[in-house]
Amino acid sequence: AVGGDRRTKARPTVQLSFDEIGGQERAKQELIEALDFLVHEEQIKKFGIRPLKGILLTGPPGTGKTLLAKAAAQYTNSVYVTASGSEFVEMYVGVGASRIRDIFKEARQKATKAGLGSAVVFIDEIDVIGGKRDGGQHREYDQTLNQLLTEMDGIHTSETPRILLIGATNRKEMLDNALLRPGRFDRHIAVDLPDKKGRSHILNIHARNKPLADDADLDKVAAESFGFSGAQLESVMNEAAIYAMRDDTEAISHRHLSMAIDKVMMGEKTDREATK
Ligand code: ATP
């Protein structure tokens, strides 16, 4: 792993390994490749390769983008600093920009204090800040976006601590082109809804700390939960455990799992109807 050869014994601020993320094999592999690339500083310099500054994770809600960013921090032995684009909504002019400055400053300070060589800055819902600029409107966001671009341009591989920016969005098509230019978010990784195998993997991860009855068949649950995100599958396991507890049984049976699938599916429907 990347972190092993670091000078200090300092530990990253989050403890989450890629093993705790189900499915997403391609996304994990692409991310790890990008992270491995980061540590070959000498080679990058020798070949005059443009350093990697930003990785963009794109895909529907609840598919594990935040988990991937956290695992990236652990894998590279970095401190982890995070903010959500929605935190910048309704901010007065200039406040968003200074908040961006603060996040990067905080990342550098935290890494230095922890004795770590790098920091992962994760910005969820980056489209809220980095949405397409539409001629004069949303001026406060413009300033925020400009500050983000300035910070990105200021990232250098030779600096210590090194900063890696990871952004996440469900709406890649909304992003301003300035963010997607080479030298900015130039690595895009798709984090899609899991397929059946991925769903089974995710269910097994969330069953690790739960007692399952002999008849509980997680592969069958995976087959019956087409279109579910990782977050919804986590809910299925949790709801099933609640049903089992209410039944006063020792373990989660397949009936509890089936009821939980229905509940999560219904929940989604009511949410959707409510927002109509
Ligand atoms: P959003 O776009 O809504 O921020 P996200 O893609 O960042 O979503 P996460 O926050 O990573 O989603 O996932 C939410 C929760 O769902 C996780 O804490 C975890 O419990 C569960 N989860 C999602 N995806 C996975 C996965 N691939 N493996 C295991 N658990 C998952």
Automatic annotation (TrEMBL):
Subcellular location as annotated: Membrane
Swiss-Prot/TrEMBL keywords: ATP-binding, Hydrolase, Membrane, Nucleotide-binding, Protease, Transmembrane, Transmembrane helix
Limits of the AAA+ ATPase domain: 51-195
Organism of provenance: Paenibacillus spongiae
Coiled coil, from the record: none
Lineage top rank: taxon: Bacteria
Family affiliation: In the C-terminal section; belongs to the peptidase M41 family.
Stretch of the intact protein here: 53 to 328 of 504
UniProt protein name: AAA family ATPase
